[in-house]
Amino acid sequence: MSVLHIDAQVVDNREVIKDHRVITCLAPDLAELARPGHFVNVLASEAASSILRKPFSIYHADPHTGLVAMLYQVKGPTTVGMAHKRAGDRIDLVGPLGGNVFEPDPRPGVHHVMVGGGYGVPPLVFLSKVLGQAAQTPQITFIVGARSKDRLLCQDELAEMGVNVRPSTEDGSHGVKGRVTDVLSEILADDVAVYCCGPDAMMRAVGAMCIASGVDCQVSLEAPMPCGIGVCMGCVVDTTDGIRVRACCEGPVFDARKVVWK
Amino acid sequence: MTHLSVKIGTLDLRNPVMTASGTFGFGVEMASIIDLNRLGAVVVKSTSREMRLGNPTPRITETPSGLLNAIGLQNGGIDNYISEKAPFLRHFNVPIIVNLVGYSVDDYVYLAQRITAAGAADALEINISCPNVKHGCDFSVDPLLTFELIDALRKATPLPLITKLSPNVTSILPIARAAIEAGTDGLALINTLLGTAIDARKRRFKLANVTGGLSGPAIKPVALRMVWQAHQAFPDIPIVGMGGITNGIDAVEFLLAGATAVAVGTATFVNPAASLGVLDGLEAYMDEYGIDDVRELIGAVKAIDD
């Protein structure tokens, strides 16, 4: 594990939808090492009473430009501190973190299906980008879910990437009315590999659906991760092997078959 | 040349900065991030007779200037420590202190004998005070039980013993006295303060275990007070002070209160190299104030009107 503690320069920080922003930093070493599924632990609180780092999955990492981006929802001391950063400011990052990241299914002709909900979408956009760089452009479907149209993330970007976008909203304001599993159920087939990130309940439902269909499904779990480097033991996940493993080191990406959901 | 070395019993530390048990794993992860050989000692996670899965999640939550945890002593057990963790740690030139935890005197004696026989540590920290496990506090709140335990350990191993005290008592002094009379070489204080956190919106506790141990800067004043009290009562016993130490100045404050060494805990979560930052800060302080020997600082705090 190669973990960097970086004082990175912010180059851009903008709102993408209400209360959701993308912060882009110049961090060449991190950009070089980052893979889809990796995260960084950010120290950005302006409130002295909030001392801990908070984890954010990596949304973009470009080794050519050295830029790394995170998409975040503004809702607590750390994300409020992040939202106040302007181009030229510094941001304190530890990363890339994660001992197990998304592993592209190596089968030729495999149909990659991303299932993202809420701010689980960004690491899957990163994964889609990396997959899209292959010599033979693979088939990628991106199921993205939210409560309503105004909460769907990364819509324009996904359209530009040329992946098959399948939105679903609970209120029916855009795409399929319902949940991501309603869309997934139509797509599941033997040649599909599923990569999922979102709220626990969603990942659990997607995982169960894939397991029942015999389809491989990788889920990226979220947990409180004060250290992110494997020493605090706060982020453990129960596995079907009967052990408790650290989401930060043995994850955050797990085979859905291995996860014992709470 | 600045003199940084200190002693706890027969244990020589090249400098007074060590890690706090439970915040540094078994050194494996940290070794790829910082130079372990610069530390005074590495104190590894609590080790028990059998493997422990620890408590269910959520087992950690942030509180004002602090961290509330109820990990529940998750560890791989003594066999795993001796066969896998200790051989790795022995690649480094740094004293290893193993934190022992058990349910009975027999458990602790067994662990001490296994580690002594395997040469798997340079000293033992006796955890009589974990607030997150059932019976974890029985020893730490009872001077007679503390005496019985430390006395048995004293007879079971020649390794230096550091007894880690709980702050969750009316007075730490009777417990400290019992440990000293039984032959402990040093005291470590404080362990975490028992607390809880509630989510008003959900009307639920934030921890699955309901209660947890509070650490971080929030507890520093309590820790400093207890170190000072223990040093006043027992000026000859070395104390490893801990509780919210984040930088070199914090470490100096603990030394002034009477600690011989300090341990860095929660700060390591925020900054993986925090322990080395504390050491650098301590040296910078000594340079600035012309302190040649770190031992000049121990217990040197004065009253405001002195």
Structural domain tally of chain A:
2
Order of helical and strand elements of chain A: EEHEEEEHEEHEHEEHEHEEEE
Q: What would CATH call the homologous superfamily of the largest domain in chain A? A: Nucleotide-binding domain of ferredoxin-NADP reductase (FNR) module
As for the CATH topology of chain B, it is: TIM Barrel
Q: How many strands, which pairing sense, and closed or not: the largest β-sheet of chain B? A: 8 strands, parallel
CATH architecture of the largest domain in chain A: 3-Layer(aba) Sandwich
Mean pLDDT over all positions of chain A: 94
Question: Which bin fits the share of residues in helices of chain A?
Answer: 10-25%
Helix content of chain B: 25-40%
Can you describe what's shown?
The complex is a heterodimer of chains A (262) and B (306). Chain A is of the alpha/beta class. Chain A folds into two domains: 4-97, Translation factors (Elongation Factor Tu (Ef-tu), domain 3), CATH 2.40.30.10; 111-258, Nucleotide-binding domain of ferredoxin-NADP reductase (FNR) module (Rossmann fold, 3-Layer(aba) Sandwich). Helices cover 21% and strands 35% of the residues of chain A. Chain A has six helices and 16 strands. Chain A has a seven-stranded antiparallel β-sheet with strand order 4-3-7-1-2-6-5. Chain A has a seven-stranded mixed β-sheet with strand order 11-10-9-8-12-13-16, sandwiched between helices. A two-stranded antiparallel sheet of chain A has the order 14-15. The two termini of chain A are 29 Å apart. The model of chain B has no long low-confidence stretch (mean pLDDT 95). In chain B, α3 (105-118) links the parallel β7 and β8. Helix content of chain B is 32%, strand content 20%. In chain B, strands 3-16-15-10-9-8-7-4 form an eight-stranded parallel β-sheet. Chain B has one domain: Aldolase class I (TIM Barrel, Alpha-Beta Barrel). Chain B has nine helices and 16 strands. Chain B is an alpha/beta fold and 306 residues long. The interface between A and B is medium-sized, with 29 and 34 residues.
